Structure formats: structure tokens, C-alpha cells
Amino acid sequence: MKKVSILIPCYNEEQNVEPMSKAITELFENQLSQYDWELIFIDNDSNDETRTILRKICSENKRIKAIFNARNFGQFNSPYYGMLQTTGDCTIEMVCDFQDPIALIPQYLEEWEKGYKIVIGIKTSSKESKVMYALRGIYYKMIKKYSNVEQIEHFTGSGLYDKSFINVLRELGDPTPFLRGIVAELGYKVKQIPYEQPQRRAGKTHNNWYSLYDAAMLSFTSYTKVGLRMCTFFGMACGILSFIIGAVYLVAKLIWWYHIPAGTAPVLIGMFFLGAVQLFFIGFIGEYIMSINQRVMKRPLVIEAERLNFEKMEDNENIEACEQQ
């Protein structure tokens, strides 16, 4: 009997973890009884009642497991680390707020049985803010156009990953993983399943402009060179333009000495403009340097505070596999 691992990352999802666990349990008991399964929640240091509810759920069903992070390790590290702890023949990752429909799971498994190693959900539309969806679309198109790797549009990370690909992730040793880029760069042939993203079942989204910016910059610095090239070319253009303006101004001053005042306004405007350009691109280059620094430091993906319902032998094997990274 094949085993399916379901990974649910969560943070402050006290209203969703129990309904999610019931929905997954009922799905496998009623529709997917031909599979063995495990459900793993990885909690990213919630400060509500999420952990209390997870303890209750785990005590009632040994198939349901939980990992409690020692602190919040970010929106990318925690799910990625959770995927490395799964033991199934395939792993399905879904968000806890029901914005990845449960109905996708049978479709994922059907395509997996046909031989696909990676089956992912692609948002064709969304019931979230239209402005936000449009901005995401612009971002996806931009990163796809300028990336060195063929990126996947409207892919949030939800999908099925065969055990062979999970083993690839274990061997990467990337301390700042960006799963969407890794799937596009290193993954097998991908099967895409379109779906409409519903609204959150309950609770409030934890994504904000800063977290979305962080995600955009991680993908931008990991998979494109356009930022650095843009700095170089724009700097060259500014230098050439400044030289031409300076030469024209000098010639004009020599010809019409008494009619063109020297003045300080052009000098000040030019200084402020070039200063702003320099500060902008120093910050942009700093994003690349920060990304390099995080990778060089080789910090652990996650530090665990506690785990529930993991067998001791299985627990040790997974920890050793992660430490070898």
C-alpha cells in the first residue's frame, strides 16, 4: 500500500487546523482508502491557540503529527523543512486556510499514478483582492521574463511531490530555499492542475506588503541577473548623459560667457539625482549580498521545540538527514 504524506504549514490558524484535519481524514477514509497516509502540521511559532488544538488533535489520531518550531523561521523555511520530515511515497503540501481546495488531492494522486513526479496547482483566478491578484500577475510575468530559469506563473507551492524529488530537496542544503524556483529549475516534468483560489475559510491572512516584497526579492536575487545588469547599464547611461550635458554646458558658457550664469541649481539637482540613484542601486545590490550572506552562513532551516506522534526511529532518521545538509 502506497503512503501519502500531507504537509500543512500553519501560523495562527486556530480556526482552521481542526476543520482541516477533519477534512483530510474524511477524504482518505471515504474516497482514498487504498492509500496509507499521514498528516503533518508544522507550526511556525503561533501565538494563539493553534498549538493547544494541535495537541488535542494529535492525541485523538496517531496518523496526525505536529512539529512546533522554536520560533518563526519565515514563510519559506518552515514548509520546506516540513517536507523533509515526511515519510510517504509522495508528499502533498497545502495551506491551512483552505485556499488550496481539498478536492485537488484526488486529482494530484490520479496524475501521480500516471507517472508524474510533480503535480502542482495553478491559480487561474482568485476570489482575493483583484488588485492583489493583478499585481501578482505582473510579478509572475516579470520574473518569468527575466529569470535564467523558466518560472511557473501563479504557482504558490501547493502540489504533490514524489519521494524521489523530496530526496533531491534533502541533498540541496540550501539555507534559504525558494521552492517555486527549485521546482522550475531542478524538478521533473511537471503536470499542472488549474483551479480557482477561494477566499480564506476563517481568520486573517498573514501576508503583507513586506512579506510579499521579501518573497519577490528572494526569487529575484536567486534566479535573475537583470538587477545587477540594470545597475551597470543605468550607471553607464547616467555617466554618458552627464558627460554630454557637461560638455554642452562648457561650450555654451565659453561662447555666451555673460549670458549663461554658472549658478548652483544645476549642480545641486544633478548631485541629488545621482545620489538618489546611487542609494537605490546600493540597496538593490545589498539584496543580492544579503542573499549570498544567508547562504554562506549555513544556518539551520528550522530549530524544533517539540514534535508529536513521530516514531522515535523515524524521528532520528529525519533529523540526521537534515543535519547532513
Question: Mind explaining what this structure looks like?
Answer:
- This protein has 11 helices and 8 strands.
- The relative contact order is 0.14.
- It is elongated, with a radius of gyration of 25 Å.
- It has 325 residues and is of the alpha/beta class.
- Helix 9 packs antiparallel against helix 10.
- The protein has an 8-stranded mixed sheet, sandwiched between helices.
- About 2% of the residues have low confidence.
Topology (elements, then pairings):
Layout: E1 3-10, H1 17-30, E2 36-43, H2 50-60, E3 64-69, H3 74-84, E4 90-93, H4 104-113, E5 118-126, H5 130-146, E6 159-162, H6 163-172, H7 179-186, E7 190-197, H8 209-223, H9 226-255, H10 265-297, E8 304-308, H11 312-323
Parallel strand pairs: 1-2, 1-4, 2-3, 5-7
Antiparallel strand pairs: 3-8, 4-6, 5-6
What's a quick, concise take on this entry?
The protein has 325 residues and is of the alpha/beta class.
